[in-house]
Amino acid sequence: MTKWVYLFSKNKTEGDRSMKNLLGGKGANLAEMSSLGLNVPPGFTVTTEACINYQNNNSTISEDIKKEVLQALKEVEAATGKKFGDASNPLLFSVRSGARVSMPGMMDTVLNLGMNDSTVEGMAKLTGDARFSWDSYRRFIQMYANVVMGFNHSLLEATLEDLKDARGVHEDTHLTAEDWKELVSVYKRIILEESGKSFPTDPMEQLWQAVAAVFRSWSNPRAFKYRDINGIDHNWGTAVNVQAMVFGNMGDDCATGVCFTRDPSTGDKRFFGEYLINAQGEDVVAGIRTPQPINNDSKNDANQSLRTLEEVMPETFAELTRVYKILESHYKDMQDIEFTIEKNVLYILQTRNGKRTAKAAIKIASDLVSEGLLSKEEAILRIDPEMLNQLLHPGLDPKAKKNVLTKGLPASPGAGAGMIAFTADQAVTWAESGKKVLLVRQETSPEDIGGMHMSKGILTARGGMTSHAAVVARGMGKPCVAGCNDLVIDYKTKTMKVKGMTFNEGDYLTIDGATGEVIEGLVPTIDAEITAEFSNFMKWADEFRKLGVRTNADNPEDSAVANKFGAEGIGLCRTEHMFFEAERVLAVREMIFAENKANREKALAKLLPFQKKDFLGIFKEMKGKPVNIRLLDPPLHEFLPHSQDEKAELAEYLGIDIREVEDRGEKLHEFNPMLGHRGCRLGVTFPEIYNMQVRAIMEAAVECSEAGVEVYPEIMIPLVAVDKELSTLRGEAENVIKAVFAEKKKIIKYKIGTMIELPRAAITAGEIAPHAEFFSFGTNDLTQTTFGLSRDDAGKFLPEYVGRGILGVDPFVSLDQNGVGFLVKHAVTEGKKVNPNMHMGICGEHGGEPKSVEFCHHAGLDYVSCSPYRVPIARLAAAQAALRK
Ligand code: ADP
Ligand code: MG
Ligand code: MG
Q1: What is the largest CA-CA distance in the chain?
Q2: Which of 581, 686, 590 is nearest to 631 (CA)?
Q3: How far apart (Å, rounded) are the C-alpha atoms in residues 458 and 135?
Q4: How many angstroms does the Cα of residue 146 sit away from the middle of ligand 2?
Q5: Domain match, 165 and 16 both
Q6: pLDDT > 90: what percent of the chain?
Q7: Is the pLDDT of residue 471 over 80?
Q8: Domain holding 462: CATH number?
Q9: Secondary structure string (H, E, C) spanning 586-628
Q10: 201 lies in a domain?
Q11: CB-ligand 1 contact for 460 (6 Å cutoff)
């Protein structure tokens, strides 16, 4: 029989932290904390399986589930000594969602469930505090109306704002019991008018409806969107936690707050958090009042004048300190903890591994190793390789002139610049049309997730370091400046005033999420600097990985960036990029237009010094690390002149008529250039092109070597389908090399090999192998040709394929392991049969994508090669692949 409900209480706890899939992250950790003896209000978790059952059962809660809920409810009544629905001593519940992985703000929580016209009076009498009791009731109605009955937030909130205006007060705390009572009756009237249904008074009905609403909220559009963005399975379902309420809004000896055991922005070992006195639930996160710092370490520009929890409630703060230490060493990771203080007693409501920036993640993992809490291996497996992206990306150029308008809180580091968009929808629209957007909001809410995702950065006028904007931005790795009080945003006129200046939607603005600065216009950015901590962490990764990591680079500058990031060589140097530069392209065109070999050679002779210079620069930068150079690959017509001016210029240069230029251009036209006269087919038909390139490579290598710089060139012949192509071209290349060595009286070590990027090459790899010293899998073309789809045209249908699940992922992003991967593995096996020492690598875009890197590790490749900025990502992914085995 399936068990649907799991208790957590001092006396009896049925779950633990290993049960995240069944109990959700929140439920599993509530159970774990109960078992640790921490002061957690008792309750029970209805499982994720029950959520799936509900969905498959016509959106009804089955009788079995109901029976277990009623049983658990009795146990919680016994544990608290209160009774659910009892007017004289009422038990109230929070109903909280909790999926396997934390989805901040996605699913909705209802607090104070069980309140009605009689329990409110009972609570008032019991606590001697009518104001508190009615405040709790009106909060309950607001949340229930929104989450369960589907009312828009703003409907009831507007009524509250009106009431505050009428009373002439700014803060909720200044309203009286009578005010709240009045508000409750207005709320009930509005609900009746708008929905035709009266607000439910039966606590049991409230409970069933709330549980069902949490189950349903798994399928709301916001949750869907979040899961899509984060690649979370839509079939997991959410658990529901039903937990006895504790009250942070019972007076000035009560509070509610959020804290992090270490700094989530920098990773520094300092306890850090925010709280509000006399407040409930999400008041802190929602940015309703400016939250107070829990200690001096948590002070910032916005809250420095406010009193800390340490000052206000020293004993409770000491207890919180004791608890956070227990939790951090138990979970061996930085914790994000939610707590409530009721009448000076501390209750822990949630703990989870805190979201953090990449910089913090590295710092924390490294520190935990030094503190002896983690092994190096565990630390390496902790970091999501994609996260490193954040670290490797640019910040503001410190030398750039900047007009700092104001400062907010440095909520998530990195520089972000773009056009101001005041709504998430506007941000999405502009971003989709290729514009850089900065999302500027009063505060963000879960509805804004899509717009936040598409923006270069997020700026909010309200909210603290734990506000929705701050937490979500850190998770996304987006720059964020929060709580920038100087901003006066007017959504109606779509303007923003700051320090006497007015900005319209569409104006440019820059933020620095590391300092909190808000800057006028677009400010130039500079590359990330590599910290000692980061380098050290990457060294650990290098100790474990088996795969080599090279880079794809075509010039000395990119090679230098890659070297800085730890590249062990160049896996792909594309020579055609060198042909496009202004002074060279005429010679290239002359070569293409040559009608006989002699003229072609004349043009190629002009190109030779250019190519040689390029290779010299790269060899010098790489200092003896292998440099794999691919001979000319693209169809020649890519180099043709397009504009009338270019055609005229070429006609004059060649001394022919412009019409002749056009005629010859037309002859070069191809119906399907991707599958046309390109790659080694050019080498076969115009051998002098490759001969020139090989000569340039070898002359450069000899020159370097003579200058005392070590070199190791690898010559790669592209788009081979048939072994004879390779054997022919290899023979030609070797003749040139021999000639160069003889002329220069010097011998250099080199390799000649091929790309495997056509299915036929992969299938007949055993025939090709005798002629190759290495294989490099060109998985971009291999994906195109295996699927028979052109990457340049796939945009019209591939997103829909992925959206509808026909393809799990875009095969140009993550290697298609069953299809393309099958060919790769086959070619590796066949190649190694011929030559067990044959060197194998991958040079497609996949070389920097963690899942594909893991595949390469298992396929037995020697190295991956990726763009310079992804080199650290590949190094870490390779280490993880080796450790996960
Ligand atoms: P989220 O997943 O959005 O963090 P939670 O379920 O943690 O949602 O609930 C939001 C807030 O509601 C919590 O931070 C906490 O302050 C408050 N809350 C939840 N359960 C209780 C409870 N039993 N007693 C008092 N407050 C609670
Ligand atoms: Mg929530
Ligand atoms: Mg929470």
Answers
A1: 105
A2: 686
A3: 33
A4: 12
A5: yes
A6: 73
A7: no
A8: 3.50.30.10
A9: HHHHHHHHCCCHHHHHHHHHHHHHHHHHHHHHHHHHHCCCEEE
A10: yes
A11: no
Q: Is 282 in the pocket of ligand 1 (CB under 6 A)?
A: yes
Cα distance between residue 546 and residue 882, in whole Å: 7
For residues 728 and 840, membership in a common domain is answered with yes
Whether residue 475 has pLDDT greater than 70: no
**Same domain flag for 259 and 237:** no
pLDDT at 588 over 80: yes
* Cα four-point dihedral sign 552, 554, 559, 561: negative
Mutate to test the pocket of ligand 1, among 349, 466, 472 (most ligand atoms within 8 A of CB): 349
Q: Which of 298, 324, 353 is where one domain is finished?
A: 353
Give the whole-angstrom CA distance, residue 618 versus residue 561: 12
pLDDT band for position 817 (50/70/90)?
very high
Give me the pLDDT at residue 612, please.
96
Residue at a domain's end among 244, 279, 306: 244
Burial class (CB in 10 A: 0-12, 13-18, 19+), 802: middle
Report the half-sphere exposure of 735 (CA within 13 A, side-chain side).
Answer: 10
In a domain, 645, yes or no: no
Residue corresponding to tokens 């043709």: 640
Please name the residue that has the structure tokens 């340039």. 696
Average pLDDT, stretch 389-401?
79
pTM over 0.85: no
For residue 109, the CA-to-ligand 2 centroid distance in Å is 5
For the stretch 137-160, pLDDT in tens is 999 999 999 989 988 878 888 898
73 and 172 together in one domain: yes
**SS3 assignment for 495-539:** EEEECCEEEECCCEEEEECCCCEEEECCCCEECCCCCHHHHHHHH
Mean pLDDT within 101-122: 86
* Alpha-carbon gap, residue 268 to 72, rounded angstroms: 42
CA angle 740, 742, 744 (to 5 degrees): 65
Residues of the domain holding 702: 545-635+670-884
Q: Reduced to 3 states, what is the DSSP secondary structure of residue 460?
A: strand
- Examine residue 651 and state whether it is found in any structural domain, yes or no: no
Please give the full DSSP string across 740-751, using - where no structure is assigned: HHHHHT-----E
- For residue 263, the domain's CATH number is 3.30.470.20
Q: How far apart are CA 135 and CA 183, in angstroms?
A: 9
Set 51, 259, 453, 468: catalytic member: 468
